[in-house]
From TrEMBL:
Gene3D superfamilies: Homeodomain-like
Coiled-coil region list: none
Protein name: AraC family transcriptional regulator N-terminal domain-containing protein
Superkingdom to which the source organism belongs: Bacteria
Region of interest: Disordered: 279-298
Length: 298
């Protein structure tokens, strides 16, 4: 199984409206380097099998090509344009819409330690990556089902679930997990995350936070870890340290005061935990924060 087989399958099943007989699966084919009509796309994964696509999001422009994919955790229109497209070699790709209820279900069922810990406080809403062999193989098996109506209804949900699992456990899994926060079962966790972000300087007890959002302490702790891949206290600690790093970029000499401002009463504890997260104590880590000037560029 490879991109070559995926291209053959996509070329055979591509339609003008991109729809397929499999729910949430769209197939695209474009034979010219022209921008498609604007549309509101949902939370999704888009995999390019042949050709390339260029899109603009905010102030940035991104290119992704055959064997690469995009994941989006927000429903937003993206300005895009196909590149390297000709009638002889069209751009081919598939799009799988990602449902919050399905993301939430996998997150809640995942065993501890099976999903990588998040390193970033706020994962990007749009992320790009090279597709793993396992992801491409699963995509091939899913599109094959368009030729197998007898198997489609039973096997398509299983393969879509496999693809979603590959995405959740990928390097950009944090972006995909954000989709699950829209599910009602996880909305209390989203509320807790917002509370911690707004009150990151203040100490709190997990039990009190669980009561605030209307969950039992055990259910809150279990579901919080499923969503964020860390504990509430560790989550607050990461926010404190990332905020400290931003403050140190502006005031690199004021380490003790900044540690206090983000909620640390002990300078030694602040330095120890900062080093554990960033690999160097704050006094050394800030050495590279000096702003660049025109003279620095030679």
């Amino acid at each position: 199984m490879s991109l070559d087989e995926l291209c053959v399958l996509l070329a055979r099943h591509a339609r003008d409206d991109a729809a397929t007989a499999i729910e949430d699966l769209l197939i695209g084919r474009e034979e010219a380097d022209v921008p498609p009509p604007p549309s509101m796309a949902g939370t999704r994964m888009t995999l390019i099998a042949q050709g390339a696509k260029r899109l603009a999001y905010g102030e940035h422009v991104y290119d992704y090509r055959a064997g690469q994919y995009l994941v989006a955790s927000i429903a937003t229109p993206l300005t895009c344009r196909f590149t390297d497209a000709t009638p002889q070699r069209p751009v081919l790709g598939l799009c799988l819409l990602l449902r919050s209820v399905e993301v939430a279900e996998l997150m809640l069922q995942a065993a501890p330690g099976t999903v990588p810990d998040d390193n970033d406080i706020a994962p990007p809403a749009i992320a790009f990556s090279d597709a793993s062999g396992e992801l491409i193989e699963a995509a091939v098996r899913l599109v094959r089902l368009l030729d197998r109506p007898r198997d489609r209804d039973i096997l398509a949900p299983l393969i879509k679930r496999e693809i979603l699992w590959r995405l959740i456990t990928s390097e950009h899994g944090a972006t995909v997990r954000q989709i699950g926060l829209a599910d009602p079962r996880l909305s209390p966790i989203a509320k807790a995350v917002q509370w911690i972000r707004q009150n990151y300087r203040e100490p709190f007890q997990v039990q009190h936070l669980a009561e605030l959002i209307g969950m039992s302490p055990s259910a809150f702790y279990r579901n919080f870890r499923a969503v964020t891949r860390t504990t509430p206290i560790q989550y607050q600690k990461k926010i404190r340290l990332h905020e400290a790093r931003l403050l140190l970029a502006a005031n690199p000499k004021d380490v003790a005061t900044i540690g206090y401002l983000v909620g640390y009463d002990s300078p030694s504890q602040f330095s120890r935990e900062y080093r554990r997260l960033f690999g160097a104590p704050p006094s050394q880590d800030t050495s590279g924060f000096a702003p660049r000037t025109s003279d620095d560029n030679g």
